[in-house]
Design goal:
Length: 225
């Protein structure tokens, strides 16, 4: 059986109408929205006060120029120069020699004190003839071995070693300014300096046949048996 549609029940014709109505409503809403956002906004300026800026008049002051201090008076000469004419009488001073007076001239001798020349302070390290201990270096080491007194504290602590002492042999062979250049122990250093100071005079060093001061170094060995 074929179903027949009624023209009144057909909704296809009403769909187009509905779309047109909906489009009109949307456009109306958009128009109202744009008109609302573009309304004029009025600002009440009745309570706003404007500050009036006035320019202050600048007072022009003129600084008075102080008069310059007068220059100091020129110094006055306490003594006045007197000009004497050529024909004026001037007292003459006569200087008489000993020959005219006949008096003997006394000559005084001035004693000249000769100051001793300062000792030359130059200290050499190497010279032509180096200083020597009486009897040579073997006798020097023997002297040190016989005169060294081993410190008791160093013995108890088992301290031993070689202390190097440097000194200056003067022109007369005396020993001066001994210093420890290599230390082992304070007690051993002190004993090494004592022995070096007690040494007899050396044969001084010579440079070009002249005695000079020479720096010398000697090792002092401390060894426990």
């Amino acid at each position: 059986m074929e179903i027949k549609k009624s023209p009144k029940a057909n909704l296809e014709d009403k769909r187009l109408t509905g779309l047109l109505l909906g489009l009109v409503v949307v456009l109306a809403v958009l128009f109202v929205a744009f008109e609302w956002s573009q309304r004029d906004v009025k600002i009440d300026l009745s309570n706003v006060t404007r500050d009036v800026i006035t320019e202050e008049e600048m007072e022009i002051t003129i600084q008075e120029e102080k008069p310059a201090a007068p220059p100091p008076p020129a110094p006055t000469m306490s003594e006045e120069l007197k000009i004497i004419e050529n024909d004026a009488d001037v007292e003459e001073t006569v200087i008489e020699s000993s020959e005219e007076t006949g008096e003997a001239v006394e000559i005084k001798e001035v004693e000249v004190i000769e100051e001793p020349e300062p000792e030359e302070q130059t200290v050499f390290v190497v010279v032509e003839d180096m200083p020597k201990f009486p009897g040579g270096m073997g006798a020097c080491l023997k002297y040190l071995g016989q005169n060294i007194k081993y410190p008791t504290i160093a013995q108890e602590n088992g301290i031993q070693g070689r202390v190097v002492v440097q000194f200056i042999v003067n022109k007369d062979g005396s020993i001066v300014n001994p210093v420890v250049v290599r230390s082992v122990d304070p007690y051993l250093d002190k004993e090494a300096l004592r022995v070096i100071k007690s040494m007899p005079k050396w044969t001084p060093g010579k440079q070009r046949g002249k005695a000079v001061r020479v720096k010398y170094t000697v090792p002092v060995t401390f060894r426990l048996q």
